[in-house]
Specification:
The chain has 14 helices and two strands, in the order ααβααααααααααααβ. By secondary structure, it is mostly helical.
């Protein structure tokens, strides 16, 4: 390699290092002033005021029938900018130690709470954290360990069956493939999306009851089925936010946009949300 080529290479490396340093510096910056105002208002419980029950019911009816105004691309970008500012690195609340235990935890979480699953799985995963160990444990023992979870008999049967398939057809590993995942007992599209996202870093969006509600109530992604909502979210969520979108939306639905009475007072996107069941407060100057 000639002197000139070496110099060019060093210059390129220097520029790359400077670019990375600039990106790190930008990441450490405080959120823009309008975002800070909205986040502060939400933390103080002053983002919005929820209307009386009758008005909320009428607002929910409008949302169900898809009668809410459409979000603009700029509003969607702003919403996810705020989610990222408030929670830069969101994580699943299901406890697991590897892709297999994650898969099992998600299967067990169907029609159950993450908290309930997390109470049952530690003892299970101590005994069986691989498909081979789980298959050897047997259905009866698994059933005993997860009996506090709803539908535990069916779930125990599915966990043993999927463990055996993983051993026999996938070398004891969780496949990085949607079709292969959905072919496993107890695994549907939502579960496959969670595993692909959390275990393999795929920008998928698993639509559960919380995200389905948030999508329809806010007007962000209206749909009559989880698949419709998922497809709309995949279409409108900016690519740079897509990896964490599932977590931000599920946490928003779980802790803020509640089913019976949303906590609009603490909502960081209250002024962007199209749900007419609340009155947005003006941001502080």
């Amino acid at each position: 390699m000639g002197p000139r080529t070496m110099a060019q290479k060093k210059l390129a490396q220097k520029k790359q290092a400077q670019k990375k340093q600039a990106q790190k510096k930008a990441a450490r910056k405080k959120p823009a002033k309008p975002i800070r105002h909205r986040l502060t208002a939400a933390r103080k419980g002053k983002a919005a005021r929820v209307k009386p029950r009758q008005a909320r019911r009428a607002a929910d009816a409008k949302a169900v029938h898809g009668e809410l105004p459409q979000w603009t691309a700029a509003e969607i970008e702003e919403a996810f900018r705020r989610f990222a500012a408030a929670n830069p690195d969101p994580r699943t609340e299901l406890n697991s130690v590897n892709p297999f235990t994650l898969l099992v935890a998600v299967v067990l979480s169907a029609q159950a709470t993450d908290a309930g699953v997390n109470k049952a799985t530690p003892a299970l995963f101590v005994l069986a954290d691989t498909p081979e160990k789980m298959a050897a444990l047997g259905e009866e023992r698994v059933r005993e360990l997860i009996k506090t979870i709803g539908l535990f008999r069916t779930k125990a049967k599915n966990v043993i069956a999927l463990s055996r398939i993983l051993v026999e057809q996938h070398g004891g590993t969780v496949p990085h493939d949607r079709a292969a995942l959905e072919a496993l007992p107890g695994v549907g599209r939502k579960t496959a999306n969670v595993v692909l996202n959390v275990a393999f870093g795929e920008p998928t969006i698993a639509v559960d009851t919380h995200i389905f509600r948030v999508g329809n109530r806010t007007g962000l992604a209206v749909g009559k089925t989880p698949l419709e909502v998922e497809m709309k979210l995949m279409d409108v969520v900016p690519e740079k936010y897509r990896l964490h979108a599932h977590h931000w939306l599920i946490l928003h639905g779980r802790y803020t946009c509640l089913a019976r009475r949303p906590l609009c007072e603490t909502c960081i996107i209250a002024d962007l949300c199209k749900w007419p069941g609340k009155t947005v407060n003006a941001p502080a100057a």
